[in-house]
Amino acid sequence: MTAEAHGHHEEHHSSTGLDNRKLGMWAFLGSETMFFGSLILVMLINKHNTLGGPGQEVLDLVLTSFTTFVLLTSSLAMVLSLAAFRNGSLLWGRIWLGMVMLMGLIFLGGQVYEFTEFVTHKDLTPSTNLFGASFYTLVGFHGAHVAIGVLWLGTVLAYSWRGRFQPGMDMWGIELVGLYWHFVDLVWVAIFTLIYLI
Amino acid sequence: MATVTATAPDTRTFSGTAWSWITTVDHKRIAVLYLVTSLAFFMLGGLEALLMRLQLATPEADVVSAERFTELFTMHGTTMVFLALMPLSAAFFNLLVPLMIGARDVAFPRLNALSYWIYLFGGIFMNISFVAGGAPNAGWFGYAPLTDTAFEATHAIDFWAFGLQILGVSSILASINFIVTIINMRAPGMTLNRMPMFVWMSMITAFLIIFAFPAITIGLVLLLFDRYIETSFFIPEGGGDPVLWQHLFWVFGHPEVYILILPAMGIVSEILPTYSRKPLFGYAVVAYSGAAIALVGFGVWTHHMFTVGLGPIADTAFAISTMAIAVPTGVKIFNWIATLYGGSISLKSPMLFAVGMVSMFIIGGLSGVMLGSPPIDAQVQDTYFVVAHLHYVLFGGTVFGLFGGIYHWFPKFTGRFMHDGWGKVHWLLMLIGFNLTFLPQHMLGIDGMPRRVHTYAADMGFDLWNMMSTVGSLMIGFSFLIFIINALRSIRHGEPSGSDPWDGGTLEWTIPSPPPVYNFAHIPIVDSRYPAWDLKRGGGHTGAVATAPEADAEADEPDIHMPNPSYWPIVMAAGMVLAACGLIFHQAFILLGAVLFAISLLGWIEEPAG
Ligand code: HEM
Ligand SMILES: [Cu+2]
Which CATH topology does B28-563 take? Predict the structure, then answer.
């Protein structure tokens, strides 16, 4: 009960022992689950709604399998980064964090390529049919989440040069972005399975 | 006595005072902001309703044009739900949750301020539409394809859709804040099963909000895509399905009605025990039935769509779940009545409002169960019967409950009573006016008067009921004026109340009125559900609210650390709403908004949170 009295705001007292910010993140991700859940449902409803135009067959499984693999690997790098920071190794922490960003960027690059490819060669735009509209909406929103994640990782990385995440310090800044990143990854697994694979 | 280390602006000058409100992160002041703003919107929504009632008082009247009428019912519904009642509930969350759980503030004070400013700007944004080419006009549930550009080419719908998105952000952020506050910041000993019932209902409401709002967020995103980038999610010609909108809206919409009623139920669950001088009957049952309502509430949405033609199987299934949800609702009512039974009841104005809430809500629940039966619903769907139902639950339930809360906690936050006699006059007038307005609407609905019509012919048998309804609504308006005058007068001239005028049982009554910035000089230790009663009566297990030994040590320590004021929340909120303006007026605003947002985000991160 003394934590508050000492005004030490890095380690909040809490009834559950969980950090406030992490708990808040969980609540936010709960909300996000419903967000993506609704989007995925809309996509599933419209999966074959092509009006005779381009549909699921335009999806490039090879490319996307590769970027999916990259994104999944990035979650591993995220874990390694946090572990390195925790072990007091700033260098490796930063390297792994940079790797996560890089892999996120590769994933986004794949998506940008995919989108331009569809628009220029496959005649699939958001207004072509509802397959296209739902696809661009769902995958676009996910991509936006990845992009925000990359920016956020960049900020965290920058702060590691500004005196944060030094050995012995608390790591909630990295833990939060890690939670977010794993979540965005997990959503992609669902999207990839439901939209690309089946 | 402890001193406080937040750097407060100089409140002796006007600009200093204004600045202190703009930058405040104190949950109690934010509550006042919510309260004042939501009552202002309540008044606006009320005026819209009165205009509609004047138009409908007599057949074939011409008080407002049909176009205007459409805007009025749309904005009335939207305003009352999103700008008046939800934020009024949020005012109570802010006022009470930290005090009731023995905390010094919410988990994220700046985020709390951000939620408020987004709400304020979002509300203003939506209402600008009245002077910027036309207000939203597709009903509060904005059915497709009425919202499509083919039927509404002006920006009316865009104001509505962007406005709701903005307000959704505000609600979700606030809910995350309260979830964390309630789960994580309870005083020692305040287990979940000792939390005041209002805190329980606040927590359930917050969970409902974070899980229900995404559905409408997606619905609105798709709608805006239909309008801005020529997709056709809800447009049949492009393969779309207007019914998808209905699903997305009501998956949100039904939980939303519980979002609106649960806080009022929480308030009533605090008021009834206090004025019966008896603990709440069946505490655990009341709490868990609230949770049950929330869960089942996600599985009843198509009772709003019985006449869409989803087929007998869907209709039957949802009729059953709808009837089922009446059970936990009824359970609560029995518990309230049992709380009154054998109590030594004192009929002060808060108690009258609480009893009014329970009894009016019963009527609304009964018409709800009737509507839950598909054959009956097929007869009265889209008639005034539905309007009567929703007002018995939302006005009879929520509004009565929230007003009771205002009378009850007014002394806590001002140190003065509201005038009880005038409170009773308010109550009586409102009760009579309310029933005069909405009871006849049941008959109108059964007689076949559709809702949302601008006028009606003279020989339909609707005249008398409509006139009664209009007279009643004017009475409600008048009673509200009495309330406002009473409240304004009482702030300065009300009778001083002391810290515990009602012999309350929960923690907020153990601290001075108005509470100090830091709420509790010592964080209390709790070992029962009514710690303040234990303290006063020496009952309970061990005398409760004993001070923690650590807290005693605190007293030697001069500082209680309170968060610093911050202007980043208001800047960030302005950035968000400006960006939305950009999508309607001029793209330059998008840039401006984005820049403001980015700057405030950086400022936010860099600012020592205190
Ligand atoms: C006993 C529990 C309840 C049942 C069984 C029930 C049932 C229903 C049904 C079947 C409808 C659809 C009527 C139609 O459009 O044909 C309806 C409408 C409505 N209900 Fe309830 N209801 C209940 C409680 C509540 C509560 C607690 C609230 C809010 C505080 C509420 C608010 C509304 C609103 C706002 C509408 C109208 C929505 C609209 O069409 O604009 N209801 N209710
Ligand atoms: Cu409903």
Answer: Cytochrome C Oxidase; Chain A (1.20.210)
The complex's ipTM works out to 0.93
Q: How many residues does chain B have?
A: 610
Residue B560: φ, ψ to 5°: -110, 125
| Nearest CA-CA partner of B468 in B44, B69, B56, B73 | B56
> Would you state the structure tokens that stand for residue B580, as one six-digit string?
């939305």
Ligand with minimal distance to B389 CA = 1
Cα angle: B14, vertex B17, B23; to 5 degrees: 140
Helix, strand or coil for residue B560? strand
> Which tokens in the block code for residue B285?
């049952």
Kindly state whether residue A167 falls inside one of the protein's structural domains: yes
Contact of B284 with B193, CB cutoff 8 Å: yes
Count of structural domains, chain A:
1
Known active-site residue B348: no
Check CB contact under 8 Å for B185 and A129.
no
Are the CB atoms for A162 and A34 separated by under 8 Å?
no
Residue A4 located in a structural domain: no
What pLDDT sits at residue B547?
A: 46
The domain that holds A152 is classified in CATH as: 1.20.120.80
pLDDT in tens, B429-472: 999 999 999 999 999 999 999 999 999 999 899 999 999 999 99
Write down the pLDDT at residue B592.
95
Q: Give the C-alpha separation, B391 to B388, whole Å.
A: 5
HEC-encoded secondary structure of B448-464:
CCECCCCCCCHHHCCHH
Out of B184, B239, B553, the one facing A15 most closely (by C-beta) is B184
Residues on chain A touching B178 (C-beta within 8 angstroms): none
**Contact criterion met (CB < 8 Å) for A7 and B5:** yes
pLDDT band of residue B92 (cuts 50, 70, 90) is very high
Give CA–CA dist B264/A39, Å, rounded. 32
B381 CB under 6 A from ligand 1? Answer: yes
Report in angstroms the alpha-carbon separations of A175 from A22, A181, A182, B507.
Answer: 8, 10, 10, 35
pLDDT tops 70 at residue B528: yes
Q: Are B245 and B143 in contact (CB under 8 A)?
A: yes
Q: How far is the CA of B292 from the centre of ligand 1 (A)?
A: 17
Q: What is the pLDDT of residues A82-121, one digit of tens each?
A: 999 999 999 999 999 999 999 999 999 999 999 999 999 9
Q: Among B303, B323, B370, B400, say which to mutate for ligand 1: greatest number of ligand atoms within 8 Å of CB.
A: B303
As given in the structure block, the two tokens for residue B11 are 């409140």
Q: Which of B210, B251, B520, B525 to mutate to test the interface with A (most CBs of A within 10 A)?
A: B210
Domain that holds residue A41: 20-197
* Burial of B475 from C-beta contacts in 10 A (0-12 / 13-18 / 19+): buried
**DSSP reduced 3-state for B341:** coil
pTM: 0.94
CB B127, CB B65: distance < 8 Å: no
Whole-number Å distance between alpha carbons of B366 and B389: 9
- Asked if residue A3 belongs to a domain, the reply is no
Q: Which residues on adjacent β-strands are paired with residue B236?
A: none
Give bridge partners of residue B307 from the DSSP assignment.
Answer: none
- Contact: B554, A2; criterion CB under 8 Å: yes
